[in-house]
């Protein structure tokens, strides 16, 4: 009985390892933007091709992924793509991403924020206009978001 259980456990581990090893992450195609219905006076800026990819692996089980996302943004800044290909990411700390330059975010999964409102009220970014606050700040130049994922909800 114990032998059968161990055999099944080993087989399960081998199947999981094989599946993980052969699974490839596929990046989304950056959309081509076309001004419509009227052409602008000046041509739209086209971002150059990105040369580096930083995959963010979600920790799962509601664990905070904000440090991994910040690290990927710093590593792939100035010419890379941050790829969020897992199904669910959790953000538990405020993120200041106002330093971005020439970077893409391929968001394929869902990004959720932790629900500790007391923490967020004390640690969010404050804006005087309408007494607003934000959990996440984005900014910079030549930043593209795409991938069909969801932020929030």
Order of helices and strands: HEHEEEEHEEEE
Name the structural class. alpha/beta
CA-based shape = globular
Largest sheet: 4 strands, parallel
**Low-confidence parts lasting 5 or more residues at pLDDT below 50?**
1-23
Multimerization status: single chain
Number of helices: 3
Give the strand tally: 9
Strand order of the largest sheet: 1-2-4-8
Percent of residues in helical segments?
25-40%
Would you kindly provide a written description of the structure presented here, covering whatever features stand out?
The chain has 153 residues and is α/β, with parallel strands linked by helices. The protein has a domain at 52-153. It has helices at 2-22, 66-76, 117-123; strands spanning 52-55, 80-84, 88-91, 95-107, 110-113, 125-127, 132-134, 136-146, 150-151. Strand 6 (125-127) and strand 7 (132-134) form a beta hairpin. The radius of gyration is 20 Å and the shape is globular. Residues 1-23 have low confidence and may be disordered.
Summarize the structure.
By secondary structure, the protein is an alpha/beta fold.
Labels describing this entry:
3 helices; disordered N terminus; four-stranded parallel beta sheet; three-stranded parallel beta sheet; alpha/beta; 153 residues
